[in-house]
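User: Fold this; tokens only.

Assistant: Input:
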Amino acid sequence: MSNCRAGELIGVWQLEDRIGSGGMGDVHLAHRIDGVVKQRAAIKVLRAENQDIAQDEAAILRSLDHPNIAKCSDSGLTADGRTYLVMEYVEGSPITEHADQNGLSVHRRIELFRSACSAIEYSHHHLVLHLDLKPANILVNRDGQVKVIDFGVSRQVRGADRNKPAVAFSGPYASPEQIEFGSRLGFPADIYALGAVLYELLCGHEPFSPHLAAAELERQIFEDAPRAPSAAIYDSKVRRSDAGKNFRVEPEDLARMRGGCRLSEARKLIAGDLDRICLFALRKEASRRYRSVEDLQSDLEKVLEGRRPSIARSGDPMYSTLRMARREPLAVLSIIAVITALLAGYTLWVGFSAGRTAIVEKGRRYDQASEGGVMDLRERLRPKLTSDPRLRPSLDALDNVVRVAAPVPSARTIWDKIREYLLPFMYRRRLPQK
């Protein structure tokens, strides 16, 4: 990295080494040289193609006055016509590194994260989207105070700004709508990024691997649901040292960074409500995430107080169904076909049973009426037929008619046997033992 601007004078500031670089420009550490006050600052010098954006960032930062947002005190042009911004210098480390280096407990990590939420909640109330939230832009200074920096790609939620295409892609912290061309951006994009930062704070992993190729990472952000943080903590983590070498952090070490917990203890602290909160904020559809940072804050506050989060636990079965339908359409169609066939079969069986019952009942009533009429006739004629021996054959014929008219008992089915023998046994109450 070249430090060609080191030593250059910009107004009352003298640039020192470059401390950051991105798509918008370079950030240099600087110190004041006019002797009025001893002060250090971070000066961002933008590239030529980003001059208009610098003016937007300066205007936005001047409108925001919050203790957890790094301030912008001045702006102007360098000798070669580049726009520069004089910003508050935050001497600290990314929120995830600070938490790991200091072995903060899960409870303390949530409290630290809520300070970042407070800053974004404030910016949203002023209709400002950050759109580049990630651990590197959420710093913790030496006093333990959180500072959100780099509003370089931020925009205001009004007018034509909201419909401008996104100009930053923050790896696994970017929401689906930020990497989809032509999508309209709103508060849910920042809420997604906050959920991704919280995810990493809890388990030490990003929701999706930052080492993936860009195309595969975008595909996963669009299509795949991240695992629960309590499950991801069982994976080792590849990190890069200050010397530029990769090294592996084992799951047991990740757990010890969380207040000295064992792996099983760390998982138990994260599993359940914190899993739900993270995954709720990381939903693919913007309309199904938290409606505001206040709602996210509310759920986290309830967890800290030992209560259940009301929003993340509200449940949304339709969301799960739609996600499954998108991932496994053939399986969903098969399930629907089986359910439809079962319902159709049940409907036919009920209709057939009802018709058969009606026919049997009609026949039974007809048999009862026929038997009653013939028996009544026999009782009336019997005295006359028995009084004359010559009419004896007529009496025998009448008795045969009565026997024929009597209803024939239907054949006993397996269901008749179940009702007769099994059901009384199943519902028999046990007598209390003496």
